Each structure stands twice: as structure tokens, then as C-alpha cells.
């Protein structure tokens, strides 16, 4: 169950990032979401309203999925912090190879 929600959460996150980047900003920004590509389907105002609504819906879905994943993970007992685990021991330095004593005749 949590795997399905996690995959859905990733898709919603990617869609939300793309939707935010498409939107026209007031200060210039990327501004790739102009109404010229839409043709006669929608005007600039309609596109802005559609993108704003879609962003609000995806944002709400993002938070709901994040809360659902947190609640599901809380009950498993696996929710340990990475800071609670002990640090791995440093590997021991290899011993210097034994050098044979020079033979005296």
C-alpha cells in the first residue's frame, strides 16, 4: 500500500514541478506558459486560471499523500532516524609489509 502511495506521490511531485515551471510569472521568470501555443482554444486569462486551479489541486494532493505516507510509516516501527544509528567503524589501516633483514656474510 505504501509503495503505491509513494509512486503516486512521486508522479504528483513531478507534475507539480512541471506545472509551476510552465506558469507565467509577474517578474519574467521562465514564462514558457504563454497562450500563443494554445491557439484559439483558450485565451491567456483562461490558461492562467486553469494552471492556477491545477496547481492548487496538485498541491493539495501532494500534502494529503505526504501526510498519508507519514501516518502509514508511523505504525510500522521502522521510523528510526538516520542520526540514531551508530557511525560505521573506520577500517583498520593495513599493517606495513615485513621487510626482511639484509643478509650478512
TrEMBL record:
The protein's predominant localisation is membrane
Keyword Signal assigned: no
Subcellular location(s) per record: Cell membrane
Ranges of biased composition (kind: Low complexity): 86-105
**Gene Ontology terms: biological process:** intracellular protein transmembrane transport; protein secretion; protein transport by the Sec complex
Q: Tell me the keywords, alphabetical order.
A: Cell membrane, Membrane, Protein transport, Translocation, Transmembrane, Transmembrane helix, Transport
Question: Per the record, GO CC terms?
Answer: plasma membrane
Q: Which domain of life is it from?
A: Bacteria
Membrane-crossing ranges are 51-72
Task: Look up and give the membrane topology term.
Answer: Multi-pass membrane protein
**Start and end residues of each stretch annotated as Disordered:** 83-105
Q: GO molecular-function annotation terms?
A: protein-transporting ATPase activity
One Pfam annotation, family name?
Answer: SecG
PANTHER family linked to this entry: PROTEIN-EXPORT MEMBRANE PROTEIN SECG
UniProt family annotation: Belongs to the SecG family.
Q: What does this protein do?
A: Involved in protein export. Participates in an early event of protein translocation.
What protein does this entry describe? Protein-export membrane protein SecG
Q: Which organism is it from?
A: Rhodovarius crocodyli
Q: Which taxonomic lineage does the organism of this UniProt entry have?
A: Bacteria, Pseudomonadati, Pseudomonadota, Alphaproteobacteria, Acetobacterales
Amino acid at each position: 500500500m505504501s509503495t503505491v502511495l509513494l509512486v503516486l506521490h512521486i508522479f504528483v511531485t513531478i507534475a507539480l514541478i512541471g506545472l509551476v515551471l510552465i506558469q507565467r510569472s509577474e517578474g519574467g521568470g521562465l514564462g514558457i506558459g504563454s497562450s500563443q501555443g494554445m491557439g484559439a482554444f483558450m485565451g491567456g486569462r483562461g490558461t492562467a486560471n486553469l494552471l492556477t486551479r491545477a496547481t492548487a489541486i496538485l498541491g493539495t494532493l501532494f500534502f494529503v499523500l505526504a501526510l498519508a505516507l507519514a501516518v502509514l510509516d508511523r505504525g510500522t516501527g521502522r521510523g528510526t532516524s538516520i542520526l540514531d544509528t551508530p557511525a560505521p567503524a573506520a577500517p583498520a589501516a593495513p599493517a606495513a609489509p615485513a621487510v626482511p633483514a639484509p643478509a650478512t656474510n
